[in-house]
Design a protein that fits this description.
- The structure holds 2 protein chains of 2 kinds.
- By secondary structure, chain A is mainly beta.
- Helices cover 0% and strands 54% of the residues of chain A.
- In chain A, the strands form 2 sheets. In chain A, strands 2, 4, 5, 9, 10 and 11 form a 6-stranded mixed sheet that branches.
- Chain A is globular and about 40 Å long.
- In chain B, strand 5 and strand 6 form a beta hairpin.
- Chain B contains no helices and 11 strands.
- Chain B is mostly beta strands.
- The model of chain B has no long low-confidence stretch (mean pLDDT 91).
- The chains are: A mainly beta, B mainly beta.
- Chains A and B meet through strand 5, strand 9 and strand 10 of A and strand 5, strand 9 and strand 10 of B.
């Protein structure tokens, strides 16, 4: 079943923060985060593995709560370049497993 | 990271015809994936293609409609057969590399630029 993301859409002003949540009904091994700009392919941002890790990438970080089967993506001091649709992708076990993509969150950063 | 190219980048086709999409990777990979992304929607996995074996299709997708070839470790094709307007979508090729150590393996996934298909 497809992971559910919230919110579905959000508009931010430059410099504001945002949190995007991803929730799965199945036990998770890992959570991936991707950003897709209009007309382009998704770009891998980061991966979080089972173990509650919190990883960071510039001003974008994420956490993974395996007990709650949830992950959150944190965008701080947002920039115009952060605009796009964010997808989480989940794996249920390690090794070569397919990634199931979430419902998506459309983020728009305005000046 | 892997560099992936797809051909064609876009096409407009007539109902009832077929289109073959090519995916080329700059390195050898074990698994290749084909996704469909309908306008404004998330990505849906069509099938997984391993070299030397038949593709594995996800629920709702069948080989007769979406035949896949995987002749070697750097190339795959997806054919959209007997097209209808409902097949209008972006089709994306993806490859996966296994990273991390033996204790904590994880997959890095990279996407091709996509093929935008419009069926009239």
């Amino acid at each position: 079943q497809q992971p559910v993301q919230s919110p579905q859409a959000v508009i931010l002003r430059e410099g504001e923060d945002a949190v995007i949540n991803c929730s799965s009904s199945k036990a998770l091994y890992s959570v991936h985060w991707y950003r897709q700009k209009h007309g382009e392919a998704p770009v891998f941002l980061m991966i979080l593995l089972k173990g509650g890790e919190q990883k960071g990438h510039e001003k974008i970080s994420a956490s993974f709560n395996e007990k709650k089967q949830q992950s959150s993506l944190y965008l701080t001091a947002s920039q115009l370049s952060y605009s796009g649709t964010y997808f989480c992708g989940t794996e249920n076990s390690g090794g070569y497993q397919k990634v199931t993509f979430g419902t998506g969150t459309k983020l728009q950063v305005i000046p | 990271s892997a560099v992936i190219s797809q051909k064609p980048s876009r096409d407009i086709c007539q109902r009832g015809t077929s289109l073959t999409i090519q995916c080329q990777v700059d390195s050898q990979v074990t698994m290749m994936f084909w996704y469909r992304q309908q306008p404004g929607q998330s990505l849906t996995l069509i099938a997984t293609a391993n070299q030397g074996s038949e593709a594995t299709y996800e629920s709702g997708f069948v080989i007769d409609k979406f035949p896949i070839s995987r002749p070697n470790l750097t190339f795959s094709t997806l054919t959209v057969s007997n097209m209808s307007p409902e097949d209008s979508s972006i089709y994306l090729c993806s490859v996966e590399g296994l990273a991390g150590g033996p204790d904590r393996p994880y997959n890095e996934q990279f996407f091709g630029p996509g093929t935008r298909l419009t069926v009239l």
